[in-house]
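Pinned message: reference record for Prostaglandin F2 receptor negative regulator
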Amino acid sequence: MKMDNFHLTVVFGILMWGCCSARVVKVSPGPLIRVEGQPVSIRCDVYEYSGPREQDFEWMMSRDTSAVRLKIISTFDNSYSHPSLSKRVASGDISVARLEDNKVELKIAEVKSLDAGLYWCQTPSTDSVISGNYEAQVQLIVIPNTLSVSPQTLPQEVPEGSDITLSCNVTRVLTHPTYLSVTWLLKTATTSEEILTFGPQGGVTTGAKFARRYADGGIRLVPGKNGVFELVISRVMTSNDGTYECNGTEWTHENENGGKWIKIVESTKEMGTVKVIPTGQSLSVKTTSSSPSPLLSPGDTLTLLCSVGASNLQALALEVTWLAGDRDIITMERSGVVISNTSSSTVQGKRGEASLERTGAGEYRLSVRGVGEEDGGEYTCRVRAFIDKGGKSAGGGGRWHMAAEKKSSAVTVKVSQIKPNFTLTLEPTLNPLMTAEPTELACLVSNIAHLPLGGRLGVTWEYTTLPGAGGGPQTSHHIGSLDGNGNLLPGSTYSDRLKSGALSLTRVQPNTFKLRILRTQEIDMGQYSCTVSAWSASSHGDLVKTTEYKSSAVTVRWDTKRPTLNVMAKRIREASVGGATFEMSCIVSLENLGEAGYSVLIQSQESLESNVRTIMTLSPDNVLQHGGATDPNRRDSLVLAKSGPAEFRFRLAGVQLSDRGFYWCDITAWTKQQPGQTWTRATSAESNKVRIDFQENGPSFSIAIHSDDTSVYPSTTAKMECSLSVSGSSPKTDDLAYEVRWFFTRLRGGQTTNQVASVDRFGVVKAEARNSSSEISVERRDTHSYLLNIFGTQDSDSGEYFCVATPWYLSASTGAWTQAGELTSSRVFLTVQFAVWDSLQLPLLYGASASLGVGLFSLVLGLICAQCCCRNTAHTPRSRNKLMDLEMD
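Predicted structure (tokens):
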């Protein structure tokens, strides 16, 4: 019983394994409808098989419902084919192609009607267990080729902008459920592009280059009856040149993979080659005058006609513009909107009032009312032809393409008018002889005739460089002009100079104009001319230029010599005693330079070999500054001022001994091209030197320094006294004061000195910052003695010390404080010693005391130990045996 259950389980497992891995053979779902003479392919796949990966296939067919099968072809047996099919297999008309190990495809190059029937695909078994299906069948239906494509012939030439209709008749005999599609193509020399495809089931697809145009309505499909299809291309362009073709295709719909369309036969026919004639070839523009006379008088009306012709005129949108010379005066846009440009003012004034209207197909009329002389000239009509890229159904589309542009021949219009005439004279009224001098030119108008009532004159000034100036060709520049209303119109090059006033254009009288350059520069040398224009009132009441005359040129130039400057200094007031006032005048003489500004430096030096000091400066803009050598307390005593156009005065009040020396002026000449600009240096010079030299019979001073002790120990106080003495006419104590400074150098006779402390003549003490930790004070013992104290001296305080004093005394002759000469004392060398014995006294005393105390303590301790701890009261007599006693000891 148990064995039976085991066998049943094994059998059930085998059956289940076989069910899960059953072979599946699959062919294309049918029925397959194909057209006689066309290629056919039937695919066969096998799945869920065992054995080798590569499977073999056998194809058979049956032409009727009988069970007789004809062997067609095999993938492993070359002799497999039925004799009736072997020749077709050998010729390749029937073949089998392996797509993959388990996929093949039966191919018939040209299917015949006798090939209709059932087709079987078989796979020999390679499975260990027979399970599933090993063959599959599909029905092939072969229908005759009844597809007919009949296009209508196209015209060889089509005007740009017109429509062309591509008509094509596509039919077939319906015996089985097949579908039709029609495709139009445009073939050029290099490419073939699809325009539109309709079908196979009512759908429409467009080529990439025609999708936008189809969406705009420029391409329209018009399905007809009885297989007639029409494709209308609106507003053709030159890019539509080429050969047009019509393609008809018959389709069948199969259910494989959810359903797909299979093309079973197609036919393409040429419709013809179309040449699109550009609009420019047929566009014509002609201008005629409808005025009674070619010569008009001021105030008349000018009428001109513009006639436009084209082979496709009805398909064009025209933009018509009338031009006077090269200037647009009025335009009618393609939408019919008229834009007039005659209202904008020009240099010549305003033109007559223009209007433009369309009088018929391609006919446009220009009218200019109230013409003046400025309306004379050549008139042309310019036409721009536009074609709408969008189709009619899109309402114009709004995408315009300019197909052509053409101008008519010019029509000359003359307006008679008597022009004013006059005589011009240009003469210089101010001619510069050197740089920075003014220039003035007068333009005189005389013999004025035919200037109408209310007419005015205007002027234009021009400048031309001298021949060969700068090595280049002559160039002309527009300086500026005054129009009939007196408005100033500056040239771009001279605009800044005119605005600043460095250059001016004026009308001094109704018939006299002047050009004035305030400071003429070398770049202004050249030729100048004036052009005077006559302005008259037009029919609109505006001033318009009627005529103009140009004067002969006037040359402005001078010898460009280098400017020279001479300065002479002379003494105005001499200071013979201290406290007096010194005054000096510097007179400037300038050559080869016009108007200029001056800067002045007052300089001095004690002797001809000493350093130069700047006392005061005066800028060209009269800004006064004091130099670094000026005592701030004496600035009120210094005066520098401009006393004339080229004269400057320097005054020094209350001279002192320190003021003795040489004084002179250093003067620089500066120029400006125009107001507001910066000064430009021209030249400079120094004057002769004026000396201040007087003898002051005042007191004589001497100085000395001494110290009670020049060798001190550290942390003690060192004192050095600076003593001054006075002899001669000794002033009172209250009339005498000293400025004293102490200096220090580390090395004997060293050059590097540092200021230690100072006391000014008012008693203010200042101690300088030092690296040493010692402190310094200054003590005034009496009028002539000053003491320097160094507390807590350190080794870094060793070095040479000396004092410098500047005596001040109240002069009896001048009543002013006078500074005497600076006095320098001799030098004292201070030594901060290192006291070796004093430093060792206390350490030695402490060491000896400690040693003696330790020795006494050791002695006493030994005696105590000997008496108390080592004493033996029982005496043992020494044995006579000395050796034994010694050993015992």
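Pinned by admin. Summary line: The mean pLDDT is 83.
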